[in-house]
Amino acid sequence: MNLKTDNRRARHAFTLIEMILAMGVAALVLVSVTTVLFTTMHVRDATADAVDAVGPIDQTVAFIKRDLQCVVTPTNGTSKFLSGSFRTGTVSSLGVSEPVAIEMYTASGALSDNAPWADIQRVTYELRNSGNHAGGGQDLVRSISRNLLTAATPDVTDQLMLSGVSSIRFSCYDGSQWNDAWDTSSVSSVNTNLPVAVRVDIQMAGNNAGQPIEIMVPIDSQARTNAVITASSSTGS
């Protein structure tokens, strides 16, 4: 009787070969699941890095476009303090320690109850040495001056736009050719008005180096003359 029971139990048990095969199949399934999991995590991290890299670039492009689209036409006379010169190239700007790539007066300032300034502000873009030397390149900084009527050195607020930048260049189109330098502050200069369009080339450094980021912004403004604007009045009977 016991022999028959042992035979029935033996028929329902797993053999050693079946156990080995089951463990092998389980191991293969586990390896496949782990591979898929790590691949998914790698794709997720790569996507997150790409999104994080594109975010500051999109923000920088948006700021540059808005500043150039709102640029104020240069004037002279009594209103020159609120609509100063438009200069590109290697420019020294008051209150900014480093040479700037562009200096412009633009109506892109945000109005608020806490800041008693108009929407016109002086904006510069310049490259500065980065504290993060591991990534290479420099920091692209946007400097803003809101109080344009101060008799002292204006207060400048710096805004970090983009890190890892190799170079930035502003080119101005005069209707026939592109110019790397533009200065409306000089009376003797041919370029006393705003350019027809501005092209911005930003070259990244390090692992992000490749095709430069190119921005093209048309400028819609009225031309001015070199004559000083004066107020006149007349009386008649």
Structure description:
This protein has 237 residues and is α+β, with helices and mostly antiparallel strands. It folds into 2 domains: 2-50; 57-218, no CATH class. It is 27% helix and 27% strand. The protein has helices spanning 2-12, 16-69, and strands at residues 87-91, 100-106, 121-129, 138-145, 157-173, 178-179, 182-183, 197-204, 213-218. Strands 1, 2, 3, 4, 5, 6, 7, 8 and 9 form a 9-stranded antiparallel beta sheet that branches. A hairpin with an 8-residue loop joins strand 8 (197-204) and strand 9. The chain is elongated, with a radius of gyration of 32 Å. It starts with a helix and ends in a 19-residue tail after the last strand.
In short:
The chain is of the alpha+beta class and 237 residues long. The chain has helices at 2-12, 16-69; strands at residues 87-91, 100-106, 121-129, 138-145, 157-173, 178-179, 182-183, 197-204, 213-218. 27% of the residues lie in helices and 27% in strands.
Keyphrases for this structure?
2 helices, alpha+beta, 27% helix, single chain
The main β sheet shows up as: 9 strands, antiparallel
Q: What fraction of residues sit in β-strands?
A: 25-35%
Uncertain runs:
231-237
Strand and helix order:
HHEEEEEEEEE
The domain tally reads 2
Shape: elongated
Tell me, rounded to a whole number, the average pLDDT.
Answer: 79
Task: Indicate the topology.
Layout: H1 2-12, H2 16-69, E1 87-91, E2 100-106, E3 121-129, E4 138-145, E5 157-173, E6 178-179, E7 182-183, E8 197-204, E9 213-218
Antiparallel strand pairs: 1-2, 1-7, 2-3, 3-4, 4-5, 5-6, 5-8, 8-9
